[in-house]
From TrEMBL:
One Pfam family linked to the record: Vwde
Compositional bias of kind Polar residues: 989-1003
Gene3D superfamilies assigned to the protein according to its UniProt record, in alphabetical order: Galactose-binding domain-like (2.60.120.260)
Keyword Transmembrane helix: yes
UniProt keyword list: Membrane, Transmembrane, Transmembrane helix
Residue spans crossing the bilayer: 922-948
Protein name in the entry: von Willebrand factor D and EGF domain-containing protein-like
Domain VWFD intervals: 315-503
Gene name as annotated: LOC111103966
Amino acid sequence: MTACEVGFGNNCTKQYTIDVKNCSAFLVFKLKPVDSCNTAYCFEYGDECVNDSVSDVMVSFHNITWKKEEINGIVRYDPSINLLCSFTPSADDTLLYHIDWYVDNDIVIRGQTVDKTSLQDAILSAEDLNNKNKKINSWIHCVVGAKAARNKFPCFTEPSELFFAGIEILNETVTLERNKEETIAFRQTIPLVSPTLDIFGIQQPIEVRVDLSFPGNIENQCKGLGGIARECEKKLQIFTYNETHMYDDPSNWNTVYNIKLHSTDGSNYYLSNRRLVLRLKTNSVEGQGAQIFSNVNLHDVNVNVIENNTAWKGKCCSSYADPHQSTFDGYRYECQDIGCIADKTYIFYRNQVHLQEVQVKHRNCWGRRPRCVCAVAVRAGQDVFVIDGCNGMQYINFPLCNENSLKVIKETDKVYKVYFPTGTFVKIFLYNYASQSFYINLEVYPTVADVSRTDGLCGVVDGDKTNDLRRKDGSQDDINSYDYHNPPNMFSLSWQSTSTEDLLSMSQTVYDQLTPLSFYFYKLCLCDGEKIACSYKHFDECTSNIGGKEYNCMLHSSSRKRRDLSAASIFQQHDNEYDALLRTKRQTISEEEATNLCENDFQQSEYYNTCLQIVPNFSNETFVNCISDLTVTGEQSLTQLHLDTALGQCQTYILLNSTLQAEHPDITTIIINLCPNNCSNRGVCSGGNCTCDHGFGGSDCSFDVRFPPTITQLSDNGLCDRSEEACEDVTLYGSYFVEKMGTTCNVDRKEINHKNSVISTTSYTTILEERTLFEGYCGLQHGADTPWITKFTFNLSNDDNYYSENFTVYVYNSQCQTIHNDSGNVYFTLQSGYCFISGSCIQSATVKINDSCWQCKSETNVYEWTWDCNMTEISTSSPMTSDSSTVLSTNRVGLSSATTKSTLKISKSDRNMAPNNQEEELAIGIIVLIIAVTIISIIILATAVVMVKKSTKGKQNSRSSISPSFLDLKVIERNMSSKPFFDSEKLPSAQQYAQTNASQASF
């Protein structure tokens, strides 16, 4: 092509030869540089240019088209979505319109041509997107121009606005307040479709959903803040083929979907991570047309977590010793004989919004007036955890566990930490200083979920101690009206539990009326791809796993464990007398002497002084309590109790304060790793764990473990029912089961058959494991088979020198077995209407799996399968093992009445189908059969001889004479046909018959 440079006086002052390439739909020009800086190439429209233009160009959803496919009677409709490029055409009806489609600025269709009558054909289909590997969540636009002919190009074009086709996130950045809920919203800008399956006229669309994920949420939850949501997926509205008309109305599919978002939280004061990323993605969808919706990553949502309320930080509600109580906001008061009445239950802490509470009970301790907490109940929804040491009780367990919302950590033998779903936690310290009974020190550490929502003896956590004496009826006492010698008794009394709310009553009626968490709350889920974990627990599980081991709620909620609640409530009747004896020996200590004693012990602990210096909110509260208790009780050993309490509280404050740990890493690490009770001066402390001296055990080396625990009762009184549980262990109740006690269970296992005979004996040893101070267990190891009864006899020893008495456990199946105890002679019988075959209880008339010819016939044989099949004319009962699959099928066996020859036929298919376990009994049948046939043969032979002799003499006899032997033979044959001459239940096997005659035995 020649290009001309236009001058002032000449239209072609200079020529340039330009290369041009025809690319069918367009031309490519290879332009050469021009000589002058003020010269440029210009392209003029030729005479074929259309000057008309279009307007109002836009992209929108058009319609859904379907393809039908039928496979094996199932009809499948595959949908395809179509987008329309609409515009206002020129008034000239002869013009054509050239359309180009772009997806994310990549051209996917070029030169689509329509006229004024086919404007509805200007579409971009799902197939077009698939061909270019494009999916939804793309920006799409079209470019339209008018032209005179199909092989021409428009001179003027008009583009549409960008159209976002997919799922639009309405708030890509959200701000989430700590312990609050935030909503993330999205909507479809085009309908999402999926294939419809039509099965027998019933249509069902394939599911399309949006999956939520916080990437790395589960693996990284220990490293900082995590995200949780009510659900990890959101199902989208999809219509079937028959509902296609629903897509015509955008309100049916252009709806807003909401996602409720939370953050994992806990009682930690500071958040190490305040930013979360929520990733949204569609699921994998079948169908060709639906591929544009399959596995599409949507826009990420950035979540910024903020914190506006800090009134809960550094707060602790406590009850120490006899009891010295402190509210969350730091108001201290006493609760002695008038305020805290013995054996009455009080509401210690309550958050009614979150359905969680702590209740306590007191009893006399160290004298007439002092009261100590002896029982505590922790409740969330319909879960209740109880520790009860009142009046000789020894109980640590879940009396109710329906929602698995509480997390209980046994940190040491005597320390339990119980987490509420909000992250608020309770620390329970068992102690028995100067008493054989156990008492309880109690601490409750709040979270932001408690601010302005708590009541009870702990008061309101809001940073204002003046409102902490709010009574149960809502009235409020003036905190300035009370002091140590004049405690707020009426306030305390107002928080007594009624009989209908007393969790320590162990009343099923009380438990049944508890409101479940599911009534008000949703489970929240950790969403991380295919890894999903949902629960009512909103706190960071990782931070709750520091030290100790979890006391599993589900383990103790089985049917057996529920029945064991009474067994776990062991009484020690001598406690009160023992404590009374101790009280008579005490002496009076003056306040000055008490101060010196407490100061001496506290000052000797360098870590206590360090806690006072560097730990915020840590005070000398326990030191003051120490002086008070020594003055009232005269018991000097209580100084160690209060020092341990102080150091324990200091440890907790440090663990909750990551900033403090970062500022003082060395000293805080040492304090965190202090051993409980300084190992009672009977061991060596290392890394927070005690290595006890010989003869001592427990997490603080305070227990004498030279002798095994004292056992007061076995679970279910030594019975274990296989119909209800696996019987993998036996629970022992008594005192004490502690860490590092080194107790061995020496077990003898005897397997007993239904005749009460021992068929096998095995001995083994296993370690006695502790669950609580009052509960342990020995493992029960079973043999390969399940016998009639398994009897375990065991004793306990710590050093193979001292042994406990023997204990016995019987493993049986109550479904069909009944236990009898005849003056100590224990035995079991089979219930009527049952068989017991291969270790299983089988109801009478039940047929064997995969072999209906074998039945349980309790009236025939209760310990083996009985053969009962309609294809045979001879009923055969065979004591066959339950795992045998042999089937017996016999032809009719008898004597032919047509001849004098008796024939026993055995078909080829029968030879290997008789029960294999009948050989000994059937051998007797063979012998009987042979003898019987031999006798009959002799009789027939003798009769024939007689007949021959009489026939010889027949000429001498009268013509009317008839041989009686012939009549006798008929009678014999008739009798033999009516009654078999062998016992059908001792039918010989085909193999035994074959040994007599390979295919047919003739006699």
